[in-house]
Write a structure and sequence with these properties.
heterodimer, A: 292 residues, mainly alpha, B: 434 residues, three-stranded antiparallel β-sheet, 44% helix
């Protein structure tokens, strides 16, 4: 009796494939289709060709949102790729109370967004703790506009992202560091390599794949930045929408009874496109580096 | 070759399945509106069951009222069952939207005009004019006007309870900061003058103004927001720009809280309760509300009429055009909003007024008991006679966000007032057409 047929593997993957189709592929295709329509939340629309894309590129807020999003990526990717690695190397050692330090560094990851919002608003408000300290120390005469300045609000949000992300990426690096063979470090030490040399010659090549993974994860999440800007800048994205991000634009277009789902889908397709391209570039660079 | 054909067959099946599944979602929303102008026979039997939805009214004050209201109706019409549900205050628009898209819109539903409008344009609400011949005689005109929408003939809501927005002032702060509490501002010019006096008198610690201008201020300063056909926004004129300039000057001079333009702004009502701000706006029941949260402040509040025609807040009861039991739904909606039940309801919500003509003209509402709470209820009644619903039905969440953005730019001085208004009107008109 013959059990193996050409369709046997397909039978095994159909359940998983069904779920992926239902929850990932179908919504993605539907978003693509909706981006060519003028569908609203409670009224069906019709095909409008590329007019949503034309409207998107004429949207005065898109340029701001794009600049902010790209700036977020440019600053967050190096910071959140390097700092967690250094932190992981620090907390990797077995010293007394190291568990406590690891927990403290990881704490921002588990803190709820609401709590984080209250803490950071309280810190950065014009009458908040940071401004109070600066004025008490006579470093500034007037409150620093952390939550109202066009760039200061963006950098405050980036600080919040870095603070919240350090612990998460540190854990990823810790597991990667555990896989770097101790013998390599010992051999390098015998050969006279110091700490810095061992870091560049042993540790870094050992976690190269993880570094690339972290960089890609940070880049994707930075492209999708929303919570931090919403927490600190509100629904308007700071004064005059100066600190909007692309996801904030999507949220604004897709909320309310009159939500413009067609236009929001167009913005989503655009965001997808500008996220995938640099991701592919990073992947290609990594492959080349590994090959060499 | 054989193997390749198999793969092609599998790929074709998968692609077809994907397209079928994707097709289910293509188009989003629901465009299958019912016949909104259908009529219900006067002698149609009233029996069966329906769902009745209110908005944020399930609490200690109102639950007993609705429970007995439903019981009384079910007793009057044996064989009927009314399932009363209440939705929380936050996210009501989104909840209603999901009810529409999932085809679970309640048969009788409490909707303010701005939420009712998209439901009317998508064919979800019943036109009441053909089913209630006495509509215009039974309900107040301002309420009915709020449920008449551009592009749709008819009326789509029974006016239920109405409120006019008044001014409220903190007497103690007025006295402390060198202002006369017997001469509170009567217009915006007075407001800006007295805001400066309060700022100077308190060495910059107290504020009179803590809110950016709203639609009512814009209309009062510079005429209508839109053209007659509701096809274009037209308020980008010099008078409105001059109004924004006044706010910008006050903000620059420190006469408004510095965080009024930011996300940390708590709202003028919260700041008024904390006695950091001496002016807020609210309904006729504001003093009673304050008494519950800040009993020391309540006796110190001075109510006064709105600047210009008051902002009218309307709540209404609509009937779903897709109701499976229209005779019962219509009968219950009429019952909830009839004069006797509205009067009983308003007794639990002093400061608001019923939407029926018989009750709205009752002189009892024009008599104060001599307290500031009674005075504010009377001022609310007086203001109601000329109140206007300033929010156009086409107004959306996105428009509100755009307006806040541009007005903030003007007030913070990052853009000239005229430029901000021009940009705002351009954006709003794009939203109308896109």
């Amino acid at each position: 009796m013959r059990y193996h047929r050409w369709y046997s593997p397909w039978l095994l993957v159909i359940p998983a494939l069904g779920l992926v189709t239902l929850f990932s592929i179908w919504p993605a295709i539907n978003t693509g289709v909706l981006s060519f329509t003028n569908v609203r939340q409670i009224s069906g629309g019709h095909f409008v060709g590329f007019s949503n894309f034309v409207a998107m590129f004429q949207d005065p807020q898109l340029l701001n949102a794009l600049v902010n999003t790209l700036l977020y990526v440019v600053i967050c990717v190096p910071l959140l790729t390097v700092l967690p690695l250094l932190l992981a190397i620090l907390v990797q050692r077995s010293i007394p109370f190291i568990g406590l330090f690891r927990t403290v560094f990881y704490f921002p990851v588990v803190a709820s967004a609401v709590v984080v919002a209250v803490i950071w608003q309280w810190l950065l408000d014009s009458r908040g703790l940071v401004n109070g300290l600066l004025q008490d120390l006579h470093l500034t005469q007037q409150a620093v506009p952390f939550l109202t300045g066009r760039w200061l609000l963006l950098f405050s949000a980036i600080s919040l992202t870095v603070w919240k992300g350090l612990g998460y990426y540190m854990i990823i690096y810790l597991s990667a560091l555990a896989n770097v063979p101790r013998e390599l470090h010992e051999a390098a030490a015998v050969d006279g390599a110091g700490g810095v040399r061992r870091f560049f010659a042993v540790t870094l090549p050992g976690v190269r794949a993880t570094t690339m993974l972290v960089a890609i994860l940070v880049m994707i999440s930075a492209m999708r930045v929303f919570t931090e800007l919403y927490i600190l800048g509100g629904r308007t994205g700071g004064i005059g929408g100066n600190d909007s991000s692309i996801v904030l634009l999507i949220q604004n277009a897709a909320s309310g009874l009159n939500a413009r789902l067609g236009y929001a889908s167009t913005l989503s397709v655009f965001l997808f496109a500008i996220t995938v391209i640099p991701m592919l570039v990073l992947s290609r660079l990594n492959r080349r580096a590994e090959a060499s | 070759m054989h193997c390749r054909l198999r793969y092609l067959a599998v790929a074709a099946c998968a692609a077809s399945a994907l397209l079928v599944v994707a097709g289910c979602g293509v188009g989003g929303g629901s465009d299958n509106g019912a016949d909104t102008s259908q009529t219900v026979a006067a002698n149609a039997p009233i029996k069966g069951s329906i769902t009745f939805q209110t908005w944020s009214l399930k609490n200690q004050t109102f639950t007993p009222y609705f429970t007995s209201l439903v019981q009384a109706f079910e007793t009057k019409y044996p064989g009927t069952t009314i399932n009363w549900i209440d939705q929380p205050g936050d996210g009501y628009q989104q909840k209603v939207a999901s009810q529409v898209t999932s085809k679970t819109l309640p048969d009788v539903i409490n909707l303010p005009p701005n939420i009712a409008y998209p439901l009317v344009t998508s064919g979800n609400l019943l036109d009441l004019t053909k089913n209630v011949p006495t509509l215009t005689q039974d309900y107040v005109q301002s309420g009915l006007d709020s449920y008449r929408f551009p592009g749709a003939s008819g009326e789509y809501g029974f006016p239920w309870y109405l409120g006019a927005e008044l001014n409220f002032w903190n007497k103690a702060m007025f006295t402390k900061d060198g202002l006369n509490p017997n001469s509170v501002p009567k217009n915006l010019d007075d407001l800006f003058t007295q805001a400066k006096t309060m700022h100077d008198g308190s060495a910059g610690k107290d504020y009179l103004i803590s809110t950016i201008p709203g639609l009512n201020n814009i209309v009062q300063a510079g005429g209508p927001l839109m053209n007659a056909g509701y096809t274009k926004f037209v308020f980008n004129n010099d008078k409105v720009a001059a109004l924004l300039d006044k706010y910008a000057a006050a903000f620059k001079a420190g006469e408004m809280p510095p965080d009024v333009l930011t996300n940390t702004y708590q709202g003028n009502n919260a700041l008024f309760l904390k006695q950091e701000v001496a002016w807020t706006t609210g309904q006729g029941n504001e003093v009673s509300k304050v008494a519950q949260t800040n009993p020391d402040l309540a006796p110190n509040i001075i109510p006064s009429p709105s600047f210009g025609p008051a902002n009218l807040n309307v709540q209404g009861i609509s009937v779903s055009a897709k109701s499976a039991n229209l005779p019962l739904a219509l009968a219950f909606a009429k019952y909830v909003t009839d004069n006797a039940n509205q009067v009983a309801f308003i007794k639990l919500a002093p400061g608001f007024l019923p939407g029926t003509t018989a009750a709205a003209n009752d002189p009892a509402y024009a008599k104060s008991d001599g307290t500031n709470a009674g005075d504010s209820a009377v001022i609310g009644y007086q203001d109601m006679q000329h109140a206007i619903n300033y929010t156009p039905p086409v107004w959306s969440d996105q428009m509100n966000t755009d307006m806040n953005q541009q007005i903030s730019l003007a007030i913070s001085g990052q853009k000239s007032s005229k430029q901000a208004l021009d940009d705002l009107v351009t954006q709003l008109n794009q939203l109308l057409t896109n």
